[in-house]
Design a protein that fits this description.
globular; about 300 residues; alpha+beta; 8-stranded antiparallel β-sheet
């Protein structure tokens, strides 16, 4: 069966190769045990060229995730950034989703990765709205029965493949309930995040978002929203959030590289606010779009032109 990405080019261990030729054995360690490290990055069409949003910050987190998992590659942050630029250029994509991935490229059986080769792979693929029409209309969520991982179990600050089994279970449970997405709570019961997104509550014209202590991934889009909101004069509070605050919020939205700014219009079948994307969510979404497409010059240093 032909892949929908056939014809694209990727970067593998220092070389640009066709997507269909960048293959690994089915027993590869990172496929069997979830030991890969990845990032998700977006590039946008500005009308004056393609820009990659917060490239340096994403690559830094990529390298930090590897450090947490005792992984080392023979490429610097600068090497990875240059490789990402090469891949986007090679595919002539005006906008895309970029996936750097470091993994144990060995089919030797055994949990321990000691002595196994680490390869680095970078793909750039066409990518639209993660939640489709939900990006504009809003999505329906379910608070998952699964809790978010914490540092006693797995490092939540690392974007490791295995960490996301937790997210997959929550997403599948939400889908089985007829919902669009899940919301996970930390082991202490406080709200953590979505399977691949940070969450924001709007209450009395303030933005409230779970703090680091809720076992969240400190998302780059989350940081962007906080800085953009403060620039607009909107107060932002980072604190623990009780589950029931989701039901009584004026507005809710997810923020993430793939999800961008996605309104949440119901939680556990309880309508949030008016049941439609609210005014603060719309303001943040418009500002975010303006920033990532280069229209807002105040944040131009976050953009890397291809």
């Amino acid at each position: 069966m032909e892949s929908k990405y056939a014809g694209l080019k990727v970067w593998l261990d220092g070389r640009i190769v066709p997507y269909e030729k960048a293959v690994v054995p089915i027993l590869t360690h990172s496929l069997q045990y979830g030991s890969g490290i990845f990032e998700g990055i977006r590039a946008y069409d500005t009308g004056k060229g393609t820009v990659i949003f917060r490239l340096k910050d994403h690559v830094k987190r990529f390298m930090n995730s590897m450090k947490i998992y005792y992984m080392h590659i023979d490429y610097s942050e600068e090497d990875i950034m240059n490789a990402i630029l090469k891949v986007v250029k090679a595919n002539k994509l005006s906008s895309c989703y970029i996936r750097p991935f470091a993994f144990y490229n060995s089919d030797a059986i055994g949990v321990s990765p000691k002595g196994k080769k680490i390869s680095t792979y970078i793909a750039a693929v066409p990518f639209g709205a993660y939640f489709g029409a939900g990006k504009e209309k809003g999505i329906r969520c379910k608070v998952s029965s699964w809790h978010r991982i914490n540092s006693l179990i797995l490092p939540p600050q690392a974007k490791a493949s295995g960490n996301y089994i937790n997210s997959i279970l929550a997403s599948m449970e939400a889908a089985a309930s007829g919902m669009d997405e899940a919301i996970l709570t930390a082991i202490n019961g406080y709200v953590a995040e979505g399977p691949g997104e940070n969450i924001f509550v709007v209450e009395n014209n303030k933005l409230i978002t779970p703090s680091r202590e809720s076992d969240i991934l400190l998302g780059i889009t989350r940081d962007t929203v906080i800085m953009a909101a403060e620039g607009l004069g909107i107060e932002v509070v980072e604190r623990s959030i009780h589950k029931e605050e989701l039901y009584t919020a004026d507005e809710l939205f997810f923020a993430g590289t793939a999800a961008e700014i996605t309104p949440i219009v119901s939680v556990d079948s309880i309508q949030v606010g008016s049941g439609k994307p609210g005014p603060i969510t719309k303001i943040i979404a418009e500002r975010y779009s303006s920033i990532v497409t280069g229209k807002d010059k105040e944040y131009s240093d976050w953009l890397t032109y291809v």
